[in-house]
Design a protein that fits this description.
Mean pLDDT of chain A: 89
Order of helices and strands of chain A: HHEHEEHEHEH
Strand order of the largest sheet of chain B: 1-2-5-4-3
Oligomer: heterodimer
Helix content of chain B: 10-25%
Largest interface: A-B, 14 and 13 residues
Distance between the termini of chain B: 52 Å
Number of helices of chain A: 6
Low-confidence stretches of chain B: none
Helix content of chain A: 25-40%
Bound molecules: iron/sulfur cluster
Strand content of chain B: 25-35%
Number of helices of chain B: 3
Largest sheet of chain A: 5 strands, parallel
Number of strands of chain B: 9
Number of domains of chain B: 1
Low-confidence stretches of chain A: none
Structural class of chain A: alpha/beta
Chain lengths: ~160, ~160
C-alpha cells in the first residue's frame, strides 16, 4: 500500500496546507484544450493513445477553452492561426498553462527563414510555460514536458503568482 | 490521340488563339490566348474525339521578368490521352479567363493562383483568397515578393 492510501484509510483524515491541496488538485487534472496544428499534432495524438496514455496524468481533452487548463500548441503556428490561438487562450479560465510542442511552435522550426506565413515562436503572442524541443518531439518528450509543467504547478503559491 | 493531332485539332478550330506549342517535350504543351481559355477548354472537353473530362492539375507560375502564367494538366478518361495547356500574362495586366465552369476542380485552384500570384481570374464565380487571410497584402509566390516586417502587430521575420 502506498503512503497516500494509508493516509486516507486512517480515519479518513489527513492534514495538508491549502496550497498543497490546491496545487495537487490542479496538477492532477490538467484538462487539455483539444486542438492540433500540424505534424506535431500526430505525435500528440500518439501520446493520447493507449501506448503512452496521457490520461494517466489526468489530462483529458476538452473541446472548449472554457473547460481547459492547459493548451498544447502542437505544430506550426501560421500568422492566420496566431490570432485564433490568442483568442482561445484568452477564453481559457485562469489558472491556465501553455506547452509549446515542437520546433515550429518554439521558434518557427523549418520555416524560420522562408516562412512568410509562419509565426516564429508562439511565445510572441501568448506566454509559454514549457517548451518541448523536437521535430516532432516523441510522445515521451511531450510526457516529460507535462511532468515539468506539473513540477511547476506543484511549486505555485496561492498568494503570489509564480510566473 | 497524339499531341500532334490534338494540336492540329485546336489550331484548325481556334487559329490565332493557339499561340505556341512544343510537341516533342516529355509532356507536350500548347500555349493559348489567356482571354479565350474558356471556349478552348470547353472544346477540349466536349469534342467527341478529344473528351478531356479530367483536369488533373492547375498551377500558377512566375517565369521571372514580369511574366506570369497558369499551367493546366488535362487527361481524358475515355481516350487515355494527356495534354498540357498553358496561358501566359504579364504582371502589368495579370488577367486569365476562368475555366471553372468547364472543370469544377478549377474553382479552388484558380483561387489559389489568385492568392499566391495575383493573377486575376476573369469570370470566376468567387474570386477570393483561399489560403492567406483576406487582409494579407501582396502575393507571396511572386519572385519579387518581400516578406512584411509586421502582420497585425505580429513580427514576421525570425
Ligand atoms: S516541429 Fe516539425 S513535426 Fe512539428 S509541426 Fe513543425 S515541422 Fe511538423
Amino acid at each position: 500500500m502506498g503512503l497516500l492510501d494509508q493516509r486516507f484509510e486512517n480515519g479518513n483524515v489527513f492534514i495538508t496546507s491549502l496550497e498543497n491541496l490546491l496545487n495537487w488538485a490542479r496538477l492532477s487534472s490538467l484538462y487539455q484544450m483539444q486542438f492540433g496544428l500540424a505534424c506535431c499534432a500526430i505525435e500528440m495524438m500518439a501520446a493520447s493513445a493507449s501506448d503512452f496514455d496521457i490520461m494517466r496524468f489526468g489530462i483529458i481533452p476538452r473541446a472548449t477553452p472554457r473547460q481547459a487548463d492547459v493548451m498544447f500548441v502542437a505544430g506550426t503556428v501560421t500568422l492566420k492561426m496566431a490570432s485564433r490561438i490568442k483568442r482561445l487562450y484568452d477564453q481559457m479560465a485562469e489558472p491556465r498553462y501553455v506547452i509549446s510542442m515542437g520546433s515550429c511552435a518554439n521558434c518557427g522550426g523549418p520555416y524560420w527563414e522562408h516562412g512568410y506565413h509562419v509565426l516564429k515562436g508562439v511565445d510572441r503572442v501568448i506566454p509559454v510555460d514549457v517548451f518541448v524541443p523536437g521535430c516532432p518531439p516523441r510522445p515521451e518528450a511531450l510526457l516529460e514536458g507535462i511532468i515539468k509543467l506539473q513540477e511547476k504547478v506543484r511549486k505555485e503559491s496561492v498568494v503570489k503568482k509564480s510566473a | 490521340m497524339t499531341a500532334e493531332e490534338i494540336y492540329n485539332n485546336l489550331k484548325a478550330k481556334f487559329g490565332d488563339a493557339i499561340v505556341e506549342a512544343k510537341l516533342d517535350a516529355l509532356q507536350p504543351w500548347i500555349v493559348v490566348d489567356p482571354n479565350r481559355t474558356k471556349e478552348i477548354a470547353l472544346f477540349l472537353r466536349d469534342e467527341p474525339a478529344l473528351q478531356f473530362d479530367s483536369m488533373m492539375c492547375l498551377s500558377g507560375v512566375d517565369y521571372n521578368g514580369g511574366k506570369l502564367g497558369i499551367v493546366y494538366h488535362l487527361f481524358s478518361m475515355v481516350h487515355k490521352h494527356k495534354i498540357v495547356l498553358k496561358a501566359h500574362c504579364t504582371k502589368e495586366n495579370p488577367h486569365i479567363q476562368s475555366v471553372s465552369s468547364v472543370w469544377g476542380t478549377a474553382n479552388w485552384h484558380e483561387r489559389e493562383v489568385f492568392d499566391m500570384y495575383g493573377v486575376v481570374i476573369d469570370e470566376h464565380p468567387d474570386l477570393r483568397r483561399i489560403l492567406l487571410p483576406y487582409d494579407w497584402e501582396g502575393h507571396p509566390l511572386r519572385k519579387d515578393y518581400k516578406v512584411p516586417e509586421f502582420y497585425n502587430g505580429m513580427k514576421v521575420p525570425y
